[in-house]
Amino acid sequence: METSTNGNGNHQDQISFEEMEDIKAEVRDMYPNIPFPNVYKDHLHRGISNLRKVPNRYMVIMERDGEEMETEVVSGEYRLVPHEYAIHRFQTAVKEVEEYGVPILNIKLYSEGAKMMMVATFPDAPANLGMDDIKPRAGIKNSYDLSMEWEHFFGGMVERCTNGLLMYKKLVGHRQKHRLNLDVEANVSAITAGMEQMSIQYDIWNKWAALNLDPKHAITLLEGLPLVSDKQQEAIRALPETGTNNTIDNFLKVEKPINGWFLNSVITQWLTHEMEDTPANLERETRITAYLHGKKGLGV
Q1: H helices within the chain, ranges in order?
Q2: pTM for the whole thing?
Q3: What domain range includes position 26?
């Protein structure tokens, strides 16, 4: 099938305008309680009596019930990805990995529909590591208002038995601007590939659980955490781990070895529950995840 556009110069993933409209209708029927806005991309004009197209400038217009809600001005390089299309590709992909069982899918719209996040959890997927119960979690984010890039992610939710606290450990993640080279199909395929390799990550985590760092090594590791200040390092060291109430400082004071999985859990707890959910913290989380998997972190 040839690559086509949606009639407004907007590139799509090897899909025709008619197929896109069918997908949008299918997803709306599937989720009748989600108030998806209509959105389209049109040429930007200037002038009053004699309208002229502005070269390489378009308007992204969002409307619901015939009422225009929000407009953004974008360049010709902007890729408009309908929420419905992203949802369709994502839910199709995550259902293909049968070993995870039937996923629970949750969709949220923000900013009157300008932003969307869809998350899949897999309650029937068996995965245990020590005292922690780890369940896979995958998701996508999309937007029409330029405030949020396309993002896909996959990882594991860690549930502590004592109080049900959930902590997220991201394994696969990618953010990309809405440009013409944004390939939704390829991005979603990356999630599936990550899901299929989850057993590899469990092996890594099990090695961390068997790894005991001497105090000096642990301090060096903490000092190397990217985008973490000295004051934030102190907060991590003093943070009681949920479920055990142990702190990194307690081990350092008595000069006892520090378990790699414990160290990773405390850092994750700090990232996901002590820090605000901001773009800066999302970047910090991505950098720290890569660091911990590297030779300077817990790489084994």
Answers
A1: 17-30, 83-96, 184-196, 198-209, 215-223, 230-238, 248-253, 260-269, 279-293
A2: 0.65
A3: 17-75
